[in-house]
């Protein structure tokens, strides 16, 4: 199932259930379209899905930073080790927020809303998964067991 738009009801439910004083990480998985789909819009120069997402991310970063968020990791997907054959992803990135109260503030920001056309046009498919930070140590300091909650 293609998922490219944020579900407001899910965001509100997560916001109610998550602690406001805990850092959160949003896991972003993207598979880009060969050609961005801007629908009937004629005010946008045609481009690839990857280029459309670049347009979005360059304009979205200041919005993310205004609410205390930061991109803490980004990189290309090199291969599928444990993933269904029909699932292919191009990019994964992690955005850290001071708490889950931050993403809803971004989604309601008029500047952010004005660039969502690029976010929607770019991916063939995407995933946005909220998670909580449990380990904040480097790999050399990893515990003998990973805490599973």
Produce the secondary structure layout:
Layout: H1 8-17, E1 24-32, H2 49-66, E2 70-76, E3 91-97, H3 102-107, H4 110-121, E4 123-132
Antiparallel strand pairs: 1-3, 1-4, 2-3
Organism: Sphingobium indicum (strain DSM 16413 / CCM 7287 / MTCC 6362 / UT26 / NBRC 101211 / UT26S) (Sphingobium japonicum)
Protein name: DUF1330 domain-containing protein
InterPro entries: Dimeric_a/b-barrel
| Low-pLDDT residue intervals, each spanning 5 or more residues | 139-149
Helicity range: 25-40%
Q: Given this structure, which CATH class is correct?
A: Alpha Beta
Output mean pLDDT: 82
Largest β sheet strand count, sense and barrel closure: 4 strands, antiparallel
Distance between the termini: 28 Å
Shape, per Cα inertia axes:
globular
- Under CATH, the topology can be stated as Alpha-Beta Plaits
Name the assembly state: single chain
Q: Based on helices, strands and strand pairing, what is the structural class?
A: alpha+beta
Number of strands: 4
In the CATH hierarchy, the architecture is 2-Layer Sandwich
Total helical segments = 4
Biggest sheet strand line-up: 2-3-1-4
In short:
This protein has 149 residues and is an alpha+beta fold.
List keywords for this structure.
4 helices; alpha+beta; disordered C terminus; 22% strand; globular; 4 strands; Alpha-Beta Plaits; 149 residues; DUF1330 domain-containing protein; Dimeric_a/b-barrel; 4-stranded antiparallel sheet
């Amino acid at each position: 199932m293609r998922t490219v738009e944020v579900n407001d009801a899910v965001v509100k439910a997560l916001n109610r259930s998550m602690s406001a004083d805990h850092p959160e990480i949003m896991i972003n998985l993207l598979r880009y379209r060969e050609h961005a789909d801007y629908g009937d819009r004629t005010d946008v120069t045609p481009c690839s899905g990857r280029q459309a997402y670049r347009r979005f991310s360059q304009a979205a970063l200041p919005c993310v930073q205004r609410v205390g968020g930061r991109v803490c990791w980004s990189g290309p997907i090199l291969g599928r080790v444990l993933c269904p054959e029909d699932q292919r992803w191009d990019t994964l990135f992690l955005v850290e927020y001071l708490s889950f109260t931050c993403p809803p503030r971004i989604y309601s920001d008029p500047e952010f809303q004005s660039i969502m056309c690029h976010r929607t046009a770019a991916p063939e498919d995407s995933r946005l998964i909220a998670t909580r930070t449990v380990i904040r140590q480097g790999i050399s300091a990893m515990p003998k067991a990973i805490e599973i909650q």
